[in-house]
Each structure stands twice: as C-alpha cells, then as structure tokens.
Specification:
Layout (H helix, E strand, L loop, with lengths): L1 E6 L2 E6 L6 H7 L17 E6 L2 E2 L17 E3 L4 E2 L3 E4 L15 E14 L2 E12 L6 E5 L7 E4 L7 E9 L5 H8 L6 E8 L11 E7 L3 H13 L8 E7 L8 H10 L4 E7 L6 H4 L6 E4 L2 H12 L3 E8 H14 L7 E6 L1
Parallel strand pairs: 1-7, 14-15, 14-18, 15-16, 16-17, 18-19
Antiparallel strand pairs: 1-2, 3-5, 3-7, 4-6, 8-9, 8-13, 9-12, 10-11, 10-13
Helix pairs in contact: 6-7
The structure holds FE2/S2 (inorganic) cluster.
The site of FE2/S2 (inorganic) cluster (FES) has 13 residues, from loops.
Length: about 350
C-alpha cells in the first residue's frame, strides 16, 4: 500500500506491507515520523486520515483517549493500512541524526534467561543479522501468543551485534511479562522492531551526564554507561547516576555498576536509593564505591541536579509517573533547557 504523509508544505511517501503498523513502515523507510513509546500509550504519533481506509488496531489504546473519531484521528503506531492512504500529521517532524539507523523488523530467538531478583528477569535475544543502535535506544517486542508490541531498552552496547540484552519486570497485567515469567523461554522466538528512541547518548556531544532511573528503567542507562566505558568517555567527563529500587533485595546490576565506578573513581558517581527499606550495614560502609540512600530516588536526585548546572545532559528513565514528576521541576525550577532532558518512560 502507498502511504502519503502531509506535513505543512512537505509530503513524504512510503510503502506499507499488509498488516504493518504505519509508524513502523514510515520509520523503516527513513521518514522521521513523530513518536515516543511506539506501543500505543503516549499519543505522540497522532495523525489524521484524509484519504483511504485503515485498521485501527488496539481500540482501547490509552494514547488516543482524547482523539476525535469524527476527524479520523489515529495512532500511527497502532494502525495498518487497508488501502492506499493519505495522512496529515500535526506534530513537528524532527529530522533524524545523520548516524541514525533505520529501524526494521526482525525475528529473534531468546538465548539467555536469568532471574536477577524475585521480579526482574534478564534475557538475551539473538537476531539473524548484525545491527547497530545508539546507547539508550529500545526495541518493541512481541511474543507469539501475546497480541501487541511492548517496548524494552537494550542493556548492552556494541557497534554491530546480533545480541540484544533486555530486562523485564514482572507485571501480572502485562502480556509479554506474564508470558516470559511463566516458564523458561530459552529458544522461543520473538518478533522485534527497532532500534527506536531518542533518549540516546552520543560521545561527540561532549556533555556531562546526569541520569535518574526507576526499577527496570535502568536498562537504557546501563547501555549508556557501557558505551561511555568502552570509549573512555568518563576520563574527561562526569556522570552521576541515581537508581531507585524498593529494597536491597531488589537491587540488581551491582557488579556492573561497581565495575564502572572502579574504572572511573573520580568522575563517576553511582547512587542507589531504596524507597522501602534502609541500606544494609555493609552497603553503608562504602567499601564498594557506591553510595546507598534511603528514600524516593527523585528526593535525592533533584537537589543534586540543582547543584549540577553547566554542560549536562539529563536522562530520565522509568515508570511514566516518575518521569513526569521529574520533568517539571527539572525544567521549571532548575531552568534546565528542554533540549538538555532526554527521557524514556514506560507503562
Ligand atoms: Fe504511538 Fe506513543 S508513539 S502512542
């Protein structure tokens, strides 16, 4: 099907396969369509159908709560074309970076599967070809028996790899989460589309990094730390990470975080905040180089942001309410320019 997108004076055209989400087809063709979650929750990929027929897909998608049916407003990440279509997109279309990688469809196989805590799993997916992605990006994944894609950030970083490492938190209401926690899924196949996402790290931008993560939101920030470690970025640039989990038993990736701190003891600061319990005596001893705190992660992170200032890129990753609660004070109170805040919120 031929899809035409109108945006003010510009027109883009691309081909969409039968059943393919319009957003995915457009991004695959290199059209910089607007999106955030790519899974139907945020509403950023809004468009209006001006000609042709579409299948709207997920009818209760939260992202289209306030959409006007009579105006034929749709979510491009949920709709597929049933005929040639024309769409108009109200949101600003932002050009990609020159080094952005066009996302594509893949079939992957789960090759590793490990429980990190009682309710967090780490798994690797192997895809047939080597690809590159920016640190901080994500893929959307769909399991065979579960309808709809879910977004997961890569934990690893490698310029050209067929291994994608993810973590997932147990959620009794989440389709893919329930599927993967039900039994060992090693060797099971998944559909993937990506890489996607704008909360990315680029060493050539030369910023200090200030990062706040809640729970499994740490995934993309681990990828950023890994890339920074590989290119010795923190030799000259500072990084502060605030990572919030409920209790010491919920803290994962301790070894990896200690390794980054040990490699860059003077420039990297790693703070772990437990919301529901105090740190252990051993953690408080400070022997492992990490700083352990009690309380909500934003309560500790925000005062540190206020002192930060300067040439800093801020990364926020975690549940939607946590990220929303941080964006406002960052921009309004701390006067951090919008372009210095990159976020990845999941629901
Ligand atoms: Fe489509 Fe978020 S990108 S709803």
């Amino acid at each position: 099907m031929l899809i035409e997108i109108e945006k003010k004076s510009q027109t883009y055209q691309f081909e969409a396969n039968a059943g393919e989400k319009l957003l995915y087809a457009g991004l695959r063709a290199g059209i910089p369509l607007p999106f955030e979650c790519a899974t139907g929750t945020c509403g950023s990929c809004k468009a209006r159908v001006t000609q042709g027929e579409v299948d709207e897909g997920w009818s209760e998608a939260p992202g289209k709560e306030r959409f006007k049916v009579v105006k034929r407003e749709i979510l491009m990440c949920q709709c597929s074309a049933q005929s040639d279509c024309s769409l108009s997109v109200p949101t600003k279309i932002v050009a990609f970076r020159d080094d952005d990688i066009n996302p594509d469809h893949h079939i992957g196989v789960i090759t590793q599967y490990e429980k990190l805590t009682e309710d967090v799993l780490r798994f690797n997916v192997e895809i047939p070809t080597n690809i590159s992605f920016h640190a901080g990006q994500f893929f959307v994944l769909q399991a065979p028996e579960v309808n709809g894609f879910r977004a997961y950030s890569m934990v690893n970083y490698s310029p050209g790899t067929n291994q994608l490492e993810f973590i997932i938190k147990q959620n009794p209401h989440g389709g893919l989460s329930k599927w993967i926690f039900d039994s060992d899924r090693t060797q099971e196949k998944l559909e993937l589309f990506g890489p996607l996402g704008h909360a990315t790290f680029h060493p050539d931008e030369s910023h200090d990094l200030f990062m706040i993560a809640g729970g499994s939101g740490i995934a993309g920030l681990m990828s950023i730390l890994e890339y920074g470690r590989q290119v010795n970025y923190f030799k000259n640039r500072k990084a502060s990470l605030f990572f919030g989990v409920r209790t010491p038993a919920d803290f994962f990736f301790a070894e990896r975080l200690r390794a980054v701190k040990a490699q860059f003891p003077d420039t990297v600061s790693i703070n772990i905040a437990f919301s529901n319990a105090p740190p252990t005596a051993e953690q408080l001893s400070g022997n492992d180089g990490l700083i352990y705190l009690q309380g909500m992660v934003h309560e500790h992170a925000l005062p540190a942001v206020l002192e930060g200032g300067g040439n800093v890129m801020h990364y926020l990753a975690g549940p939607g309410p946590m990220v929303d609660a941080l964006i406002r004070p960052l921009i309004l109170k701390s006067k951090i320019p919008v372009h210095r805040v990159r976020y990845d919120k999941f629901s």
